[in-house]
Every structure is written in C-alpha cells, then in structure tokens.
Amino acid sequence: MKKTLPSDTGAVTEGRRIALFPGSFDPFTVGHESIVERALPLFDEIVVAIGVNYNKLTLTTLEERVAWIKGIFRDEPRVKVISYEGLTVDAARQCGATFMLRGVRMIQDFEYEKNLAEVNRALSGIETVLLYTLPEYSHISSSIVRELVKYGQDVSAYLPHNCDPSLIPQTWKVK
Ligand code: ADP
Question: How far does residue 29's CA lie from ligand 1's centre (Å)?
Fold first, then answer.
C-alpha cells in the first residue's frame, strides 16, 4: 500500500501549482522581484504574502507595501499580493498554496531557511522551494535599503526596475 506522505496532501490545488512567497518585504527589493520572476515558470500562481508584525517598527506601512508590490506586478496576473497575521502555513492554506517560495543569498540564509522549511513541512506538509539569488543581487536586503534610506543614500540600485515612481516615498533618494 502506498504510504501517504504529508507532501502528498494536495501538492497541486485543483490542478494549479500555487506558491506562497512570504516575507516582511520592508521594502520589496530587486532581489525579491528577481525571485518571483524566476519562479514564475515553475508555478501557475505566486502569492506574495506580507507577514504583519505590529510590534515591529517598519520603514514602510503595510498599505504602502501592498500597493508597491501590486504595482510592480501590475502586468502579471499570475502574481497576487496579500498580507497576513499568524502562521505562514495558515496563510498558505487559505490561498490554496501547496508550496512556499523563498530565496537564499548566503550560508546564513540557508540555515535559517532550512529550519523554517522543516517546521512548515512538519506543520502542514507544505514543501519549500528555495531559489539561489542571482550573484548580482546577493548583497541586497531590505535591511540594507532601510539603512541607506535612513542616511539619505541613493537606493535606486536596490529597487525593482518596474516600480511606479509615484509610489517611491519622497524621503527616499533615487536617481
Ligand atoms: P523575512 O523577514 O521573512 O526574512 P524578507 O522580506 O527579508 O523576509 O525576505 C523574504 C525572502 O526573500 C527570504 O527568503 C529572503 O531570504 C529572500 N531574499 C531577500 N533578499 C533577497 C535577495 N537579494 N536575493 C534573493 N532572495 C532574497
């Protein structure tokens, strides 16, 4: 008899492969954009899911982040944007996502992502797909952008190519 593995539990939702790409995205950078673009051929739909933590001070409000990311993918109907509170696996279930998508830049990311993937798989059977960053984006993180914004440095190189200039806060320095 075939043993049912947790990952067999609906690995494809009604014939569609949906991946949840969870993160803080404060802000969503060119590194995040690249992960979504490169993952699109692997999935039918990617849901960018902004995790809300009201105890954390953020550079951008939740509403700004949602509008920003929706704007970047305005021409790609297969990318959706949501926000969620609580467990990421619950957000995934609510979207019908049976995969998590995450990015890896360096060895420290790998260890962190491995633990997250194991916990999420144990909780829900949801498998995590990790993509390595493109080398040109491996030094880019939201925290670097936040730091540069704080000190008035130009952040153009870190922002998605396709972002709506009207959504870039006026206090950010861009070329
Ligand atoms: P979190 O707070 O959950 O780490 P982030 O918004 O910082 O969320 O990142 C979301 C995901 O995107 C993580 O898997 C992270 O490793 C990945 N990521 C962040 N920056 C990059 C980048 N430059 N290249 C590839 N992946 C990245």
Answer: 9
Closest CA to 19 of 119, 131, 102, 98: 98
Nearest CA to ligand 1 atom 10: 23
How far, CA to CA in Å, does 50 sit from each of 3, 29, 81, 91, 154?
Answer: 35, 13, 8, 10, 25
Atom of ligand 1 nearest to the CA of 139: 23
Instruction: Check if 30 has its Cβ closer than 6 Å to any atom of ligand 1.
Output: no
- Model pTM score: 0.92
Query: Which residue's alpha carbon is at the smallest distance from atom 26 of ligand 1?
Result: 103
CA distances from 133 to 79, 104, 136, 140, 146 (A): 19, 6, 8, 10, 20
Would you please indicate which residues are annotated as catalytic (active-site) residues?
32, 56, 105, 142
Write out pLDDT tens, residues 59-94. Answer: 999 999 999 999 999 999 999 999 999 999 999 999
The domains of the chain, with CATH numbers, are 15-167 (3.40.50.620)
pLDDT digits (tens, 9 = 90+) for 130-141: 999 999 999 999
> At which residue do the structure tokens 């040109």 appear?
136
